[in-house]
Amino acid sequence: MQSHELTRCIGWGAALLLLPALAYAHVGSGYSGGMAQGFLHPWMGIDHMAAMLAVGLWAAQRGGRAIWAVPVSFMVVMLLGGAIGMAGIALPWVEPGIVASVLVLGLLVAAAVRLPLLASSVLVGLFAVFHGHAHGTEMPAMTSGLAYGIGFVLATAALHGCGVGLGRLARRWASPRVAQYAGALIAAFGLYLGFA
Q1: Cβ pair 129, 100 in contact under 8 A
Q2: Domain range for residue 67?
Q3: Running DSSP on this structure, what letter comes out for residue 26?
Q4: DSSP per-residue string spanning 64-107
Q5: Cβ distance 105 to 186 under 8 Å?
Q6: pTM (two decimals)
C-alpha cells in the first residue's frame, strides 16, 4: 500500500466515524433517528469489535475479491440477524455464537487459513447472524430501526476496514506474521470469553 493509498484509507475511515454526528439533527433534544446508537453499539462490546476486526484481517490475508466480499457478506447477513432481533424473534445460542465467532475467526487468522471465497463468506455469514441479532435485540426503545441498522452497519464497515488495513499494512511494512499474532490474541480472548 502506497502512502497516498494509506492517506485515502485513513480519510475514508475518518469520514465513516463522522457520519453518526448527522443523527444529532436537533441540538439539545437527544438522539434523532437512532443512527448514533446503532453506530456506537458495536464499539461498546469488545467481543463484537474483536470478531469484526478478525473478519477484516482474514479477508486481507486471503486477498483478491475476499477483501470486499467477505466483509460485505458479514454485513448483509448481520442486517438479516438485526431485523430478526428487532422483530423480537428469539434465536438460540446468540451469546455462545458470538463467543465462538471470536475464537474461530481468531484461529483462522492465526493459522492463515485460506478457504474458498464462497466457504469464507458462508462461514462469516453464520457468525454474522448472531452479531446482528444481538445488535437488533439491544436496540433502544423508540429508535428508528432503519437509522439504527444503518449505524451499526457503518460501525461494522469501519471495524472491517480497520482489520483489512491492519492486515495490508502488516504484509506491506512488517510481516504477515503480525496479522497472525493479532489473530492469536483474538482467539485467546475468545477462549477467555468462553470460560468467563
Answers
A1: no
A2: 3-195
A3: S
A4: TTHHHHHHHHHHHHHHHHHHHHHTT---TTHHHHHHHHHHHHHH
A5: yes
A6: 0.81
Enumerate the H helices of the chain as residue ranges. 3-18, 35-44, 46-62, 66-86, 94-110, 117-137, 145-173, 176-195
CB 164 within 8 A of CB 71: yes
Sign of the Cα torsion 144, 35, 46, 68 reads positive
Q: How confident is the model at residue 135 (pLDDT cuts 50, 70, 90)?
A: confident
d(CA 176, CA 117): 20
| Burial letters 155-180, b for 16+ CB under 10 A, else e | bbbbbbbbbbbbbbbbbeeeeeebbb
Q: State whether residue 195 is helix, strand or coil.
A: helix
What is the domain count for the chain? 1
Query: In the prediction, which pLDDT does 4 show?
Result: 53
